[in-house]
Amino acid sequence: MDNKITAYRIFPNESRTRIEPASRRRQWMTETNSEFAYRCLPLNMANQHGWCVYSNNEIEFGWNGNNAVDAITVTKDGRGTAASIFGYGIITFHIMHLIKTSVDMNLYVSGPPNHFKPGIQALTGLVETDWSPFTFTMNWQITQPHKIIKFTPDDPICFFFPVPRGQIEETDIEFADLASDPVLQKQHEEFSEGRVAFYKSDEYLKGSWEKHYFQGKYPDGSKCPFNHQTKLNLKAPE
Fold first, then answer.
1. Given CB 3.0 to 4.6 Å as the disulfide criterion, which of 52, 91, 93, 169 pairs with 156?
2. Quick one: average pLDDT of 83-110?
3. What is the end-to-end Cα distance of the chain in Å, rounded?
4. What is the CATH number of the domain that holds 159?
5. CB 41 within 8 A of CB 114
6. How confident is the model at residue 205 (pLDDT cuts 50, 70, 90)?
7. Distance between CA atoms of 119 and 29, rounded to whole angstroms?
8. 235: closest CA among 180, 171, 162?
């Protein structure tokens, strides 16, 4: 399958926003004891699983709690990236790119995973970007009125990645008893017994951690036969 994303600059001589591969780093993860949050591989992989859009200018705004469009006041925005369009405490960021994907590929658009901003929550959308000549905006719901909210040039205003259209509708989901797969059941029992023993061990008390999943290994130490990943290397826009 031909996978390609093209971000067309609407204003070639302007640079209000930029697009970069998402980082695995999160401030709250860095601030955990010995950065232990980075030991969670699923968090690391989700953090990197897409591209981020940043404003090149600092943005500040506040909401008075009213549902009117003019209830949001943008107090700082160098190039008109942020605006109140819908009312109801929703702030809209203009991406400044028209993004196109390969045929039958949608774009999953949301806030950056595991990145938290007090007083505001990113909204999520799924956009058909293979045929659409329309731009999309990134919207956030302000959850705390009477508070100044700030986005610096280091705060992502948007996060996106491609998904095959229709794939989820073609995916079967079913229930089964674990005992119906003896091999999987045995592996799970070894995992459960090992986890209990580890939590009672001196290694756990010393701050050590199990690495089976991180290393792509089964409880018996053998490696999984699939393409296990511990990091992503997304391409930067050219």
1. 52
2. 96
3. 21
4. 2.70.40
5. no
6. low
7. 19
8. 162
